[in-house]
């Protein structure tokens, strides 16, 4: 159990990094820096998630005057107004994948945002899938054709049936799911190799990709973020 949780949190850290983005360009007043922690990134409908934004910072303003607001469901509509209170709690009513968004504002009105991933499962005793292991395309591969076959392997501690989501973006910040519920596989030797094919990648461009594994309990394990570049 501890090993699976470490894998899940390690993989999440890659996603959290990718989800951070500055809202505005730097000026003579420095941007604040958004950051927050969650008491747990995995729970069920009975779990009370506690969000702590006391890690926000700014070069000019002390932390206690920085204002923050929350979009707990990452719906595009903030659930709270700006406030100097740095804590929030929330209990999700349905299992699923959530990306709580927090925005911080300094006294000059400059803002920064960050979102992190929270997984609400149907059974906390069910362990998350293992980390997806990518086979192709290789990391940092160049001269890729506009049609690309993605392949990976993955297993589950309870041998639950798995499905996968493929996330792709031109940058870490822009990564989004482009295919969901992937179950296509083939047997190669003694291994089950999952795969999907995508076309239409622009030439001479760099793309980032990531595979997320989901089991029947709603556990969601992100793989590493890799990149490739298409041919000129």
Structural overview:
The chain is mostly beta strands and 232 residues long. The protein folds into 2 domains: 19-120, Immunoglobulins (Immunoglobulin-like), CATH 2.60.40.10; 133-230, Immunoglobulin-like. 8% of the residues lie in helices and 40% in strands. It is built from 1 helix and 20 strands. The strands form 5 sheets. Strands 12, 14, 15, 18, 19 and 20 form a 6-stranded mixed beta sheet that branches. A 4-stranded antiparallel beta sheet has the order 1-9-8-5. Strands 11-13-17-16 form a 4-stranded antiparallel beta sheet, with no helix packed on it. Mean pLDDT is 91; it is low at 1-21.
CATH architecture of the largest domain: Sandwich
Question: Which fold name is given in CATH as the topology of the largest domain?
Answer: Immunoglobulin-like
Distance between the termini: 46 Å
Question: Class of the largest domain in CATH?
Answer: Mainly Beta
Bulk shape: flat
Radius of gyration: 19 Å
Quaternary status? single chain
Number of domains: 2
Low-confidence stretches: 1-21
Count, helices: 1
Strand content: 35-45%
CATH superfamily of the largest domain: Immunoglobulins
Task: Report the order of strands and helices.
Answer: HEEEEEEEEEEEEEEEEEEEE
Mean pLDDT figure: 91
- As a percent range, the share of helical residues equals under 10%
Structural class: mainly beta
Give the tally of β-strands.
20
Largest sheet report:
6 strands, mixed
């Amino acid at each position: 159990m501890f090993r699976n949780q470490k894998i899940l949190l390690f993989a999440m850290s890659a996603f959290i990094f990718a989800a951070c983005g500055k809202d505005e360009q730097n000026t003579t007043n420095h941007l604040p820096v958004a950051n927050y922690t969650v008491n747990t990134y995995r729970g069920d409908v009975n779990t009370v998630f506690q969000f702590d934004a006391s890690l926000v910072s700014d070069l000019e303003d002390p932390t206690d005057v920085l204002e923050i607001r929350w979009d707990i469901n990452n719906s595009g509509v903030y659930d709270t107004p700006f406030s100097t209170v740095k804590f929030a709690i929330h209990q999700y009513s349905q299992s699923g994948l959530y990306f709580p968004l927090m925005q911080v504002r300094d006294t000059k009105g400059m803002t920064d945002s960050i979102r992190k991933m929270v997984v609400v499962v149907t059974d906390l005793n069910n362990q998350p899938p293992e980390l997806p292991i990518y086979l192709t395309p290789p990391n940092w591969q160049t001269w890729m054709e506009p049609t690309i076959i993605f392949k990976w392997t993955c297993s589950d501690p309870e041998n639950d049936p798995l499905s996968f989501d493929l996330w792709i973006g031109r940058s870490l910040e822009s990564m989004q799911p482009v295919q969901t519920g992937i179950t296509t596989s083939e047997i190669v030797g003694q291994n089950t190799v999952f795969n999907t094919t995508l076309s239409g990648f622009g030439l001479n461009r760099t793309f980032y990709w990531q595979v997320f594994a989901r089991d029947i309990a709603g556990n969601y394990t992100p793989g590493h973020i890799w990149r490739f570049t298409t041919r000129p």
